[in-house]
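Technical note accompanying the year-one report. For the benefit of new consortium partners, we illustrate the data format agreed upon in the data management plan: each record pairs a sequence with a structure-token string. No post-processing was applied to the example shown here.
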Amino acid sequence: MARPKLAVVIPAFNEEKTISNVVNEVIHHGIPIVVDDGSTDDTTRIATEAGATVVSHIQNRGYDYALNSGFEKARLLNTQIIMTFDADGQHSASLIEDFIVAMDDGADVVIGIRNRRERFTETFFALISTRLWAIKDPLCGMKAYRSEVYQMLGYFDSYSSIGTELCIFASKKNFRITEIPFDVKERFDKPRMGSVLSANWKILRALVLGVLK
């Protein structure tokens, strides 16, 4: 039986050092869609030369806006499964096959569970999320969705949820969710969420809006 067409959406902002390796690994599993979110380096050129489909933003619009653009491009390409994947090299492309197997086994959404988190607010978000929606790591950047889940909501994000709105929606609508633990690779540059205070505020805001929405 033919495997479903997979799009791997990779939001990228000034990731010229890692994007080629990421695309080269991902392209063996599906269609890499790199969303260059206003980079000032050679991210677009390098991603294109590596074989990615590239969506470019003139200016930086943020993580969730980039994913919105990537999911819309995946819809236009008529893909059946849409995965999110980080551009900084922390995710292993070998895990993609595990996600697809979970989809083959009937999952509508597959979410990675990281072995470590960078901020205490991520752990707090996870505790609340586990209790309310049975999602242990909603802020993990590696998730996969059947296109039907995305199409039912109609967008990926509406309130800067840091990639959590669609998976929370899926839980509320009783879609089947499978979670896969994995080890995060070390990163050697600065996180993209800004200062500690700013990042924690964004995470707490996303949690509150996720509960209220």
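Partners are asked to follow this layout when depositing records. The first helix runs from residue 19 to 26.
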